[in-house]
Every structure is written in structure tokens, then in C-alpha cells.
């Protein structure tokens, strides 16, 4: 299995801050990396696919980058509604493993 | 496009269970359906996926032998089943499909399975 490791596990930031979450895979996955957002009590939703492609309808303050084994999700200006847990997932091979999640809190 | 899952279940250890995920608004047989587990207060775990057109299935080694996935293309339903539940199967289970282009993910509302004696 490909292992996905996210950091940090949690963070607290102020509204307007730039937030960066990193994800590392245990082997190269090219650009087969998705980012999901899960708000409390809700199903996850896709934000970014293929490492850097923004899903239609997702605010442009979200962006993704990286390839190979190292990836980042950036929120350029944190908003109150961004309170959530964020997960990376590799879709390079099955099982399509998720990272352990990064909980984002608002200061 | 919608995925609608069956309702919450409360079961005893050792019992069997099958939960369902019904797709609508798209050609059900054309896209993989995956199952994802989320234990209470924990992260997402990819369990397995099935392609309804030919029932091609991939399991995570962590779940192989513990669960069975299936699908009935004629009625647009995917299933996740257990033959003998354990307390550690207590979790929320989601079905999800990804349809492209354009890239869109569709999640069921989740089925909460509680296993307790």
C-alpha cells in the first residue's frame, strides 16, 4: 500500500491567514493526488484533483501543488467557513489511501 | 446525480449486515463506486471499489476478507456486507462515485453502523 502522511495534524490560524498543509506519499504517485474537505457532521467534498486542478465551484483561495511524492494544499486567505478537516488521497493505485487528516481551527 | 444510502443500523456482534447505496441521475454502470469507512472521531479509510458494469472489484488489504462489495446494475444499487460483525465495525460508512468530465464527486449521506452487545 502507498502510505500518505499529512502535516500538521492540526493547526489554528486567524481569518485572513495563509494556511499550508503538506502531504507526502511513500512512493511516487505522479500527480494522482486529491484533496478533500470534511466539515463536522458532513460527508467529505473534493476540492482539488490531479494535484493542482480546482474542482468547479470551489473558491479560488484553495490551491494545490506538487508531484511525485510531495504535495501542498494552500488556503490563501482563511475564512471562517474553512473550519474543517482536510484529507489528501492518492488515486494512483488501489487501495486509494487517505492521509490521516489535518484539522483546521479558527483562532 | 445522487447517491442515497440505507438507514442507520444497530447490530449485535456476530450478526450479518448488508447496507446499500442507490445511484440516480447518471449512468450507474459507467463509474466506479467506492466505500469509505470513518470510525468515530477518526479519519477516512478507503475500503474497496466496484465497477457496476462488470463487477470488477478492488479491496484494500485491510478489509479483504472482512467485507464483501457487490452491485446490481439493473437497479443501480451497490452493497457493502458483513457476515459476522464486530464491535470494531462501528463506524460511518460512505459510498462515493467520481464522474468526469468535468470532475465531480458525489457522496452518499453515510450509513451509521453500531455494533454493540
Structure description:
The complex is a heterodimer of chains A (107) and B (117). Chain A has 107 residues and is an all-beta fold. Chain A has no helices and ten strands. In chain A, strands 2-10-9-4-5-6 form a six-stranded mixed beta sheet, with no helix packed on it. In chain A, strands 1-3-8-7 form a four-stranded antiparallel beta sheet, with no helix packed on it. The N and C termini of chain A lie far apart (36 Å). With 117 residues, chain B is mostly beta strands. Chain B is globular. At the A-B interface, β5 and β9 of A face β5, β9 and β10 of B.
pLDDT under 50 segments of chain A (min length 5)?
Answer: none
Which sequence of strands runs across the widest sheet of chain A?
Answer: 2-10-9-4-5-6
Uncertain runs of chain B are: none
**Helical content class of chain A:** under 10%
Subunit organisation of the chains: heterodimer
End-to-end span of chain B in angstroms?
Answer: 38 Å
Overall morphology of chain A: globular
Order of helices and strands of chain B: EEEEEEEEEEE
Q: Work out the helix count of chain B.
A: 0
What does the overall shape of chain B look like? Answer: globular
SSE string of chain A, helices as H and strands as E? EEEEEEEEEE
* Structure annotation, total helices of chain A: 0
Would you kindly provide a brief summary of this structure?
Chain A has 107 residues and is an all-beta fold. Chain A contains no helices and ten strands. In chain B, strands 2, 4, 5, 6, 9, 10 and 11 form a seven-stranded mixed beta sheet that branches.
Helices and strands in order:
The complex is a heterodimer of chains A (107) and B (117).
Chain A: E1 4-7, E2 10-13, E3 19-25, E4 33-38, E5 45-49, E6 53-54, E7 62-67, E8 70-75, E9 84-90, E10 102-106
Parallel strand pairs in A: 2-10
Antiparallel strand pairs in A: 1-3, 3-8, 4-5, 4-9, 5-6, 7-8, 9-10
Chain B: E1 2-5, E2 9-11, E3 17-24, E4 33-38, E5 44-51, E6 56-59, E7 68-72, E8 77-82, E9 91-99, E10 104-107, E11 111-115
Parallel strand pairs in B: 2-11
Antiparallel strand pairs in B: 1-3, 3-8, 4-5, 4-9, 5-6, 7-8, 9-10, 9-11
